[in-house]
Input
Amino acid sequence: MRRFWVFKGFLFITGFIILGGFVVMGLWNWLMPVIFGLTTISFVQALGLLALSKILFGGFYGGKRWGGCEGSGRQFWKHRMAERMERMSPEDRDKMRERLQKRWSRWEEKRS
Output
């Protein structure tokens, strides 16, 4: 059953990439030659543009995946660590703080 879902996911991702390539190619060939006088592109070139835009602009996450936004990775880990510290006994909390201070102070010394 797991193989079926892995295969289905692979097909979905592949189909999404192919569809994206055709969308980029169609939009480029429709707009760029008319507006800027550029030549048309092939499907492979459209896939290259799609990959380049993913690299340069960071993907298809809506711009709120990282950084200081609500629900970002940093906020998630802060929240998770705060919950973990609340469940600890005062002695365990002190030990944890001590370990973290040792670890990060060594890192700061190496950085300097």
Remarks:
- The longest helix spans residues 2-36.
- Residues 62-112 form one domain.
- The helical segments are 2-36, 43-57, 73-87, 90-111.
